[in-house]
Amino acid sequence: MIGSYSPALDAEAISVAAQLLKRLGIDDVELRINSLGGPECRQKYNNALKEYIGSNIDKLCDDCKDRFDKNPLRVLDCKEEKCQKIIADAPVVLDYLGPECKEHFETVKAILNDMGIKYSVDDKIVRGLDYYTRTVFEFVSNGIGAQGTVCGGGRYDNLIEECGGQASGAAGFAVGIERLLLVLEAQNGAFEAKNEMDIYIGAIGSAGLIKGQGLTYRMREAGIKAESDSVGRSVKAQMKYANKIGARYSVILGDNEIAEDSVALKNMETGEQEQVKVSELLDTMKTKRK
């Protein structure tokens, strides 16, 4: 989402992420938000943080010692217990927000309240990348261990300019697919693998290959789950693969089938076959899916 510096864009990004997780059936997550302020606020906070961490740097893990010079905010992301004890008393970024950034964050919270989206303010969320400004947020699950963030994002006002474009307000988020799967598995139990395919379109020769690829594409456009050979398998290997992917029907297209406009459509469960026109195979499969 680009083109706006309004706090409404921040709330919009959060609401889209919330709706995405809801539609995926993920309810075991908590929204946490924070504000890093603008460049001036962040610089003041960085200075205060460096001063605090600098007096405790010998007590930090090796990774945090490296982060201290490059980006002290990243130290706040550390999950090491000894580092957590130190940063527990670190300066809080919200205390360094200027008037405009405070108003921006308060408006984001007001919009979320009116949307009915529950959240908590977590002053330890920093999303330590330099292009983040003002609002940052994470959706966190408590059911998959310490690395519980399944979705994170915020405002990216510096990102487009850093990539060579014209400065523009922006906000967005990223989702960890593996984390989503872990949360869903923790909520609902292990996934049951299901191979479901409406039709497998096999081929013999170049004409069959070309026709098969075209038919597969048109079937997918029509919402039919179709797959065809793209690796040059033998006919025997193609039929074995059709069984593996759980295809309900299969055909093998060759020169004769195309020339005669007729192909044997095989029911993979019963083994029964029926002759259908190649030119009408799409319509035939539409009927069989009803």
From TrEMBL:
Domain Class II Histidinyl-tRNA synthetase (HisRS)-like catalytic core: 2-180
Entries under InterPro entries matching the protein: aa-tRNA-synth_II/BPL/LPL (IPR045864), Anticodon-bd (IPR004154), Anticodon-bd_dom_sf (IPR036621), His-tRNA-ligase (IPR015807), HisRS-like_core (IPR041715), HisRS/HisZ (IPR004516), HisRS_anticodon (IPR033656)
An example Gene Ontology biological process: histidyl-tRNA aminoacylation
E.C. numbers: 6.1.1.21
GO cellular component: cytoplasm
Cited CDD domains: HisRS-like_core, HisRS_anticodon
Molecular functions (GO terms): ATP binding; histidine-tRNA ligase activity
Enzyme class: ligase
Catalytic activity annotation: tRNA(His) + L-histidine + ATP = L-histidyl-tRNA(His) + AMP + diphosphate + H(+)
N-terminal signal peptide: none
UniProt entry tagged with the keyword Nucleotide-binding: yes
Pfam family membership, one: tRNA-synt_His
Keywords: Aminoacyl-tRNA synthetase, ATP-binding, Ligase, Nucleotide-binding, Protein biosynthesis
Residues covered by the Anticodon-binding domain: 213-287
Family, per entry: Belongs to the class-II aminoacyl-tRNA synthetase family.
Name of the molecule in the record: histidine--tRNA ligase
Organism annotation: bioreactor metagenome
Gene: hisS_50
